[in-house]
Design brief:
Helix content is 43%, strand content 12%. By secondary structure, the protein is α+β, with helices and mostly antiparallel strands.
Length: 129
């Protein structure tokens, strides 16, 4: 049974990757979001599947930032780092252009320039090592 479940999971993921690839090929726009909360959810597998479907690092990053801001009419305030923006930022521990899964390695989250999330475990690891 364990192998059957794994096979079903792989089949589901392969189907999703194929559908995303087709969507991208037809010019579709991708917006990424979750209502699960950053501290309780690791989206790194989804980022890897998006890359497998043919999305570049820049496309995946845009799906998290500029694309939703544009779609919801907030691009004058959100989605980029620039003067006059709201300073909603995520600070990562590694470079996601080299490993897309690094987009899930959030060190800090800032909203309006104030830290609203800090990964205490990552900070402790830095002190210990």
């Amino acid at each position: 049974m364990r192998h059957d479940r794994l096979s079903a999971q792989e089949q589901f993921a392969n189907t999703a990757v194929g559908q995303l690839r087709a969507w991208l090929g037809s010019g579709g726009e991708v917006l990424f979001g979750t209502d699960l909360g950053a501290a309780d959810y690791d989206p790194s597998e989804e980022y890897a599947l998006m890359a497998e479907a043919g999305m570049s690092f820049r496309q995946i990053l845009a799906s998290l930032t500029t694309a939703p801001a544009e779609r919801f009419g907030e691009s004058k305030q959100l989605g980029r780092i620039a003067a006059g923006q709201k300073a909603d930022l995520v600070v990562l521990t590694d470079d996601p252009s080299k490993n897309i899964r690094a987009l899930a390695g959030v060190q800090y989250t800032l909203r309006a320039g104030k830290i609203i999330y800090r990964d205490e475990q990552r900070e402790l690891a830095k002190v210990v090592f």
